[in-house]
Automatic annotation (TrEMBL):
Its EC number is 3.1.3.16. InterPro entries: PPM-type-like_dom_sf, PPM-type_phosphatase-like_dom, Znf_ribbon. This is PP2C family serine/threonine-protein phosphatase. Pfam families: PP2C_2, Zn_ribbon_3. GO terms for molecular function: protein serine/threonine phosphatase activity. Residues 220-476 form the PPM-type phosphatase domain. It comes from Streptomyces sp. R28.
Length: 486
């Protein structure tokens, strides 16, 4: 019996081996076929194959003959049994005398049988010299190291340079069926239907999310919200609407909310707050509730809506051990023919920009932030406070973990026409002072609120777009019902 080579890994699949293993436990590789590494004069060439000896060597005049040194021939290690001789023509190569019917006896392995392919010169009669099936075997792929004993490849088959697409290429496929009317169509290939997961069924292109960029023109007020250039989603939300007071005069409403990114589900919090506040105002103002009281009640309704998110199963699934409950800021404005009402919690702002730019603009809100507290306490001036890294840490927000809800409201009676700019810090970070905001607001903002909101969002994106950007523009005084933007 030949000595088993001591291997640490299978030469075929690199599976770890243990002492005494005869076969690989992963791929079944016959470890007894691995040549023993000689002490010197190695016969393994660089590609891992064993070079056969010259046919003129003694005892090697026919295939399968044993070498004089006791090896099995063809350079096999000593102790390896010689290959059986080729069967004579016409004899069944697979027959074995061990059992009737040609079945091999137990413990005896018959050599493989390969079908004979007739030569083109005659039916069924080969014309050239025949090679023993026991020694021929299938040819090894060019350039691939193959074990001479088992024919197992030691490398992987070549991989194609390009893999076929799972879906048709929209650039070359033109006979796609037209989706039914009302089906959301891919923005990339303009042909595939968008699945519920937000990807095109035809080209696989991810579709823009609805909240990445939102615009709404309500005639007397308009708003635009954008994800920005750095955030992976838009956590802002807004609601704009028009209603009528009991005497028929118009009332224009704008609510803007900014989700707290460090909290759970900030995008859901801002959406819930903006909807709840808008619905509260649209219900209270036609009943005759004073606009300032209606704004206070709307902020309370928004806070209740955000608090309810903390008890939802979705929050429990997404909330990590060190995260806060859903939270957001809120700012809003109500414009009537005589009054300008603002309300807020957090650091979103309202600016007043008069049509006559010779008169000064103004900021109508005070931030619930660390910087504002330092300035109010006289510990820092405004430049020093807002230059500090803690400047934008908010001290007031809507959420179940808020310290105490303190809605801020204020009422103004401007003596001249102008526009009201309601925005998140994604805009005012690039136009913080009232004069800077007035410079960014187009001169025709009162007549074109949607265009003005688009310009202001573009101003923030041009400045870097580090945060979500949301802005609503309301002309003052509120124009008569039915008048809209150009």
């Amino acid at each position: 019996m030949s000595q088993m080579p001591q291997l640490s890994a299978c030469p075929s699949c690199e599976w770890p081996l243990e002492s005494g293993d005869r076969f690989c436990g992963a791929c079944g590789y016959d470890l007894s076929a691995v040549p023993v590494r000689p002490d010197d004069n190695p016969t393994i060439v660089m590609n891992g194959s064993v070079p056969p000896p010259a046919m003129g060597a003694p005892g090697m005049d026919r295939p399968g003959a044993a070498a004089p040194d006791g090896s099995g021939g063809h350079g096999l290690p000593p102790g390896t049994p010689p290959l059986p001789p080729s069967p004579p023509p016409g004899s069944p190569a697979s027959a074995d005398p061990g059992l009737p019917g040609g079945f091999p006896a137990p413990g005896h392995h018959a050599p493989p049988v390969f079908p004979t392919v007739p030569a083109p010169g005659g039916p069924g009669a080969p014309t050239g010299p025949q090679t023993s099936p026991a020694t021929a075997g299938p040819p090894a792929p060019t350039g691939s190291p193959v074990s001479p004993a088992s024919g197992v490849r030691f490398d992987h088959p070549p991989e194609p340079e390009e893999y076929p697409l799972q879906a048709p290429d929209p650039r070359v496929v033109t006979d796609l069926p037209t989706p039914p009317e009302g089906t959301k169509v891919c923005v990339a290939c303009r042909a595939g239907r968008v699945d519920h997961d937000g990807y095109c069924e035809n080209c696989g292109h991810a579709q823009p999310r609805e909240r990445d960029h939102m615009e709404l023109d309500a005639g007397l007020v308009a708003a635009v919200s954008d994800r920005g250039l750095r955030h992976h989603r838009n956590e802002d939300a807004f609601a704009v609407a028009c209603t009528a007071l009991p005497d028929g005069r118009p009332a224009v409403v704008a609510i803007v909310c900014d989700g707290v990114s460090s909290a759970t589900r900030p995008d859901d919090a801002s959406m819930a707050a903006s909807r709840a506040a808008s619905e509260s105002l649209l219900a209270a103002l036609p009943r005759g509730t004073h606009p300032q009281q209606a704004m206070h009640d709307a902020i309370v309704a928004a806070a209740n809506a955000v608090n309810a998110l903390a008890a939802e199963p979705a929050t429990a699934r997404e909330q990590g051990p060190h995260q806060n409950a859903p939270a957001c800021t809120i700012v809003g404005s109500v414009v009537t023919p005589e009054l300008l009402i603002v309300g807020w919690v957090g650091d979103s702002r309202v600016y007043w920009v008069p049509v006559d730019r010779s008169t000064p603009p103004a900021r109508l809100t005070e931030d619930d932030s660390w910087a504002a507290q330092m300035v109010a306490a006289g510990l820092m001036n405004e430049a020093e406070a807002y230059a500090d890294e803690r400047a934008h840490a908010i001290t007031g927000w809507l959420g179940a973990d808020a310290y105490e809800l303190e809605p801020h409201t204020a009422s103004f009676k401007p003596d001249r026409p102008g526009v009201v700019v309601v925005c998140t810090d994604g805009l005012w970070n690039y136009a913080e002072a009232a004069d800077e905001m007035a410079e960014a607001v187009p001169l025709d903002a009162a007549a074109r609120p949607l265009h003005s909101a688009q310009v202001l969002v573009g101003h923030a994106l041009d400045g870097g777009g580090h945060d979500n950007v949301t802005v609503a523009v309301l002309p003052f005084p509120a124009p008569p019902m039915g008048a809209g933007s150009a």
